[in-house]
């Protein structure tokens, strides 16, 4: 009886670890996508705004 309980506890813990690992990878990918979006947005803003006031007519 104790062996069966220990097996189920181990199975549940194993599945939990796998789900946490998958969720962590998803969060990292999502964070990378957000960072890339922010970088590309900043590049577009920098391309539109002139660097010096002399450039404005």
Description of the molecule:
It is a single chain. The protein contains one helix and no strands. The radius of gyration is 25 Å and the shape is rod-shaped. The chain is an all-alpha fold. Helices cover 82% and strands 0% of the residues. The mean pLDDT is 82. The N and C termini lie far apart (85 Å).
Question: What features would you highlight for this structure?
Answer:
about 55 residues, mainly alpha, about 80% helix
Low-confidence stretches: none
Q: Biggest sheet, in brief?
A: none
Q: How helical, in percent, are the residues?
A: over 70%
What is the tally of beta strands?
0
Rough outline: rod-shaped
Average pLDDT confidence is 82
Quaternary status: single chain
**Using only CA atoms, what is the Rg?**
25 Å
Number of separate helices: 1
Structure classification? mainly alpha
Question: How are helices and strands ordered from N to C?
Answer: H
Q: How far is the first residue's CA from the last residue's CA? A: 85 Å
Strand content: under 5%
Topology overview:
Elements: H1 2-48
TL;DR of this structure?
By secondary structure, the chain is mostly helical.
């Amino acid at each position: 009886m104790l062996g069966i309980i220990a097996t189920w506890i181990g199975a549940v813990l194993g599945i939990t670890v796998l789900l946490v690992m998958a969720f962590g990878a998803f969060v990292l990918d999502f964070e990378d996508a957000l960072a890339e979006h922010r970088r590309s947005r900043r590049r577009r803003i920098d391309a539109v705004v002139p660097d010096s006031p002399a450039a404005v007519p």
